[in-house]
Every structure is written in structure tokens, then in C-alpha cells.
Amino acid sequence: MSLRIVVCVKYVPDATGDRHFAEDLTTDRDAVDGLLSELDEYAVEQALQISEAADDAEITVLTVGPEDAKDALRKALSMGADKAVHVEDDALHGTDILGTSLVLAKAIEHVGYDLVVCGMASTDGTAGVVPAILAERLSVPQVTLLSEVKVEDGTVTGRRDGDAASEQLQASLPAVVSVTDQSGEARYPSFKGIMAAKKKPVESLDLSDLGIEAAEVGLAGAWSAVDEANERPARTAGTIVKDEGEGGKQLAAFLAERKFI
Amino acid sequence: MGEVLVYVDHVDGAVRKPTLELLTLARRIGEPVAVHLGAGADTAAPVLAEHGATRVLAADASEFADYLVVPKVDALEQAVTSVNPVAVLVPSSAEGKEIAARLAVRIGSGIITDAIDLEAGTEGPVATQSVFAAAFTTKSHITKGTPVITVKPNSATPEAAPAAGTVEQFAVTFSEGATGTKVVARTPRESTGRPELTEAAMVVSGGRGVGAAENFNIIEALADSLGAAVGASRAAVDAGWYPHSNQVGQTGKQVSPQLYIASGISGAIQHRAGMQTSKTIVAINKDAEAPIFDLVDYGVVGDLFEVVPQLTEEIKVRKG
Ligand SMILES: Cc1cc2nc3c(=O)[nH]c(=O)nc-3n(C[C@H](O)[C@H](O)[C@H](O)COP(=O)(O)OP(=O)(O)OC[C@H]3O[C@@H](n4cnc5c(N)ncnc54)[C@H](O)[C@@H]3O)c2cc1C
Ligand SMILES: Nc1ncnc2c1ncn2[C@@H]1O[C@H](COP(=O)(O)O)[C@@H](O)[C@H]1O
């Protein structure tokens, strides 16, 4: 029986660009070029490795996002995923974590799955909680923040390096997994992969396809509200000295003046 | 004023500092009630009481250590049902955020993660967050349900405010999913004797410029002269020079100390995401154009192999 893997990938504004908020205090997605979140490339990579180790597997990449988010799907397909699902709906503008996870969970169920693979966090929102919420919503085990992952005989195992300890985890499929950037470098799409991706199916879904009411998502349906967003004042220019043999001592004098010594 | 649930982060009853910060913030919006899961509630209770906990709800069961996250969500959900708090505060550790997020879904509430400040507002607690690699700060509030908020370490200075801190044991009825993810082995992190990176008042970090694993002793010597924690850039971690648990940045630890010293670190956006909210920033880099210098209060353009040992020596001399 085929192992059905769904990889959740997010389309995010480039972190090296000048990211801003739009008028309505949602992330301004026009000002900066978007791309497949780098941290989700690790998820695609681990899904590919799991699929290669399995007798028979199929990888669906899933994104919830605007029209341009297709770019993220295309990149994941060119890395080697088999097909893609894009949930796109005007009513989704301004959706928060709880709304996004609701849409993702419905879409995952729509696709059908044995294993869901996520990145450790999105590079724009950075909450890192969607995978745990998906496990809650789907009522399956959460095996998250793994730096190593393996799937064998219907069991997922992995290593989670936490603050206080490193843990070896184990759960039965179906399950939701998230992987960190310690899980292994993601492959680059090959030319062949890029060409093949153009022919792979991309299914588009809207909220009604998933049986979700517009009022459950979007800015108005959000469970939290941003009241203000302020650019952090530029740091006042500091003192910069060139080391002429006394740099260490000068620095010590500064630290003493600030009472650190 | 209603009660505010504060989730206690501890190791066998030794309460970690971020929890004390949460108790301090909790008092701005209500009366703190601590929730202590696992062994050691009697050890923790006096410390929690000292910092304002009026009650300590304690539950102990082997499930908390043997299975991932869900048993703790079950316990916290039960505590919410019995207390009916005005808010739930959880430390922003990786696990803390997962617990908080699942709790929010269960109790039908909104969630805010990684707050750096908290105050009372007309529509419930107002949380300040630092976003887009600290380029912006936002203020938000929860619009549905009981606000669930996770708060980053070093967001407040713990203040003593003695309260009763009466320990009340409760028994948790675990959900079907509680035993879904088994922790089959656990290797505790070895203690270095240095302060915890996220909690430290001072952090000394090294990057690619340090050049080799053995050279990190220069960084460690400086850290030890100050009593600081040691950090590293991802380039240094990826090269295998320093453990990943010490990585500072977007995919490592986010630190907000009084003093951050970066040596041989260029200051890429992903690194800045983890240290830009530090109060005083100092850098040593041989490239005068390195972006890290845009952030500094004091910068030395020079070779770290010259500057850092001299600095360490001078600190020792000054400290006598
Ligand atoms: C999704 C993603 C997540 C990431 N997460 C993180 C993260 O969490 N943390 C992180 O740090 N990075 C992260 N990065 C990587 C980040 O983009 C940079 O590559 C990294 O921070 C560079 O580390 P560095 O400054 O040590 O190295 P470099 O950028 O190579 O800088 C080395 C600096 O050392 C200086 N130098 C060299 N020799 C000396 C000397 N003898 N004396 C003084 N100065 C010297 C050089 O002038 C240079 O400025 C992430 C990247 C991505 C894409
Ligand atoms: N809009 C989205 N579409 C698809 N996947 C997402 C989306 N948002 C979050 N995810 C997944 O959830 C992970 C954690 O995201 P977050 O909790 O937002 O930091 C990401 O790495 C993705 O795998």
C-alpha cells in the first residue's frame, strides 16, 4: 500500500528584503518578493528521503496562500514532490494561525494522508506552532522539531533536541512531523526536475471545496487582533574604533563605563 | 481581578527563571495561580509563592515524562476548566509554545506567541511582539476565548511579591491521544557550568571568524571573565565548532540580554533575528563594512585573535 505523504509549505516574503506591514496591519506581501520558506525546504527534503526509502510513496505538497504561492509549490515539485494542492480564496486574507491551521487540516483530510511533514517554523510568522495544532485538529500523534526522522513499518521515529534534553520519539502512523534545519541540507532542483514539475498536477481549492465558512477565517474571523505595528527606532549610532593595538582595552573601558565590569 | 494561570517550567521542582518573569507579568492582569506538572511541586512552591503565586495547582504522573506534550495539554485544559482564568501564560520555549497552541485550540481561544511584554488593556491583556527579525514591534490582543499567551525569556525582571502559594494537588484524566507519542529515550544536556543562554544577562558569541573549534576557548575565556553565556552563529555551528544548542538566531535561541558581544560574526538577518533586542551590543570584526556594526553601541574593527584576549585580560585586571 502506498505511503501518502502531505508536506505543508508556506510562501513567505524574502527575509533579506525590507519587510513591512500593509495598511490593515497584515504582512505586506507586495513590497517584497516571495519564495518557498527556506525552513520548509527541509520538510520537502525529508519527505523525499522517506519516500525514497519506502516501497511505494506519493508526496503531495500543500500550501494555503495567495496566487503567487504557486511558486512555492512549483519549487517543491521541481525538488521531486509528485503533486500539489493550492488553497486560495480572497476570504483568506489576514487569516491567523488558528484559521490557517483549520484550512490546512481540512485540506490534508481532503487529500488523504498517512504522514504530514512540516517545517519547524515559517520564516515570516515564526510561531512554530502550526504542526502541533495540526496534530490536535487531526487527532493524530505529533512528532515535532526533529533533527532526525525515519519511517518504517507504519512507525515514525525521530530525535528531538530540546532545551534540557535530547529525546528519542516514537509514534504510529498516521502522524504529523516537523523537521528542523538540522535534519540535513535540502537538495537543489535539477534541470530535469524543473522540466518535470511543469507537467505535475496542481489542484486548486477554495473554502467552499473544503466546507469552510468565510467567517471562520480571514482578518474578521481571526482570534487575535493587531492593534499597532511600529518600526523599531533605528539604534543610535554607536562608537566604532579601529584596533591600533589597544582595541581590547578600549572595549574594556566601554564595558566598565556601562557597569558590566 | 480574576486569576491568571501561569505554566511552570522547571526541572524536578527547580523553577526556571522565565517562570518567575511570567509571575511578575501576570500580576499586571490578575492574581497568579501556578500550574506545576511532574515531580517537585513542594520544592517549587516556596519560590512560586515568593513571586506572587496565590495557589500552586500540582499534578504528578509518569505520563508527563513518558509522552510528548499532550499529557501536559490535558492537565492544563483541566486547570483552565476548574479555575476559569482571565488568561493563561506559558514560557516561550519550543515545548511551551506547542502546549499553549494545542490548549488554545481545545478551549476555543486565540493565541499570541513570543510576547516580549504584557500589560492590562480594556479588551484583555495587550501583548507586545517583536517581528520581522526585530525590525517592528506590534501590540495585539486576543479577540476570542481566554487569552493564551507565550512570553519570551528576559521579558521582565522577576520581582518578589510574597503570596500564600498553597499547594493543591489535582488528578489528571488523560485523553485518548495522551500516549500517542512515546519518549523512548532521553539524554539530558550536559551542564557546562555557564549560565543558560536564553536566561543570561550577558552573552558572548563567536562566528565563522573564530576559524576552528579549538579557537572557541578564546570566546569561552571572555565569557567566563564576565560570567556570561556562550553563543555561536549558525556558520560556526554548521562547521561543527560549537553545539547547536548554543546557536543564536532565527533557528537557534533568541536572546535578549543586557550585553551581547559578537566576535567574528557578520550580522546576517537570521542571526540578528536572535539578538537584535539585546540592550547593549558590542562587536569585534575585522571587516569595517560588516552589517553587525549597524547595530552596535561599541564596535572594534580588528582581528578578534588580538582584541578578544586583550579584552579578557583587561577585564581580569579591572576585576582584580
Ligand atoms: C532559514 C535560515 C535560517 C538561519 N538561521 C540562522 C541562525 O539561527 N543563526 C545564525 O547565526 N545564522 C542563521 N542563518 C545563517 C545566516 O544567514 C548566516 O549565514 C550566518 O549567520 C553567518 O554566520 P557568521 O556571521 O559567523 O559567518 P560570516 O557571515 O561568514 O561572517 C564571518 C565574519 O567574521 C569576520 N572575521 C573573519 N575572521 C576574523 C577575525 N580574525 N577577526 C575578526 N573578524 C573576523 C568576517 O569579517 C565576517 O564578517 C540562517 C539562514 C537561513 C537561510
Ligand atoms: N499557509 C501555510 N501553508 C502551508 N503550510 C503552512 C502555512 N503556514 C504554516 N505552514 C506549515 O507550518 C509550519 C510552521 O509554521 P508556523 O507555525 O506558522 O511558524 C511551516 O514550516 C509549514 O510547514
**Biggest beta sheet attributes of chain B:** 9 strands, mixed
The percent range for helix content of chain A is 25-40%
Question: In the residues of chain A, how many domains can be counted?
Answer: 1
What separation lies between the terminal Cα atoms of chain A? 66 Å
Overall mean pLDDT of chain A stands at 94
Please trace the helix and strand order of chain A, writing H or E for each element.
EEEHEHEHEHEEEEHEHEEH
Radius of gyration of chain B: 21 Å
Most extensive interface between two protein chains, with residue counts: A-B, 82 and 90 residues
Overall shape of chain B: elongated
The major sheet of chain A is characterized as:
9 strands, mixed
Total separate domains of chain B: 2
Structural class call of chain B reads: alpha/beta
Low-pLDDT windows of residues of chain B: none
Textual characterization of the structure:
The complex is a heterodimer of chains A (261) and B (320). By secondary structure, chain A is α/β, with parallel strands linked by helices. Helix content of chain A is 28%, strand content 30%. In chain A, the strands form two sheets. Chain A has a nine-stranded mixed beta sheet with strand order 9-8-7-10-6-1-4-5-11, with helices on both faces. Chain A has a two-stranded antiparallel sheet with strand order 2-3. In chain A, a hairpin with a 2-residue loop joins strand 7 (142-152) and strand 8. The longest helix of chain A has 16 residues, at 38-53. Chain A is globular. Chain B is of the alpha/beta class and 320 residues long. Chain B folds into two domains: 3-179, Rossmann fold; 197-319, Rossmann fold (3-Layer(aba) Sandwich). In chain B, 28% of the residues lie in helices and 27% in strands. In chain B, strand 4, helix 2 and strand 5 (55-59) form a beta-alpha-beta unit. Chain B starts with a strand and ends with a helix. The complex binds flavin-adenine dinucleotide and adenosine monophosphate.
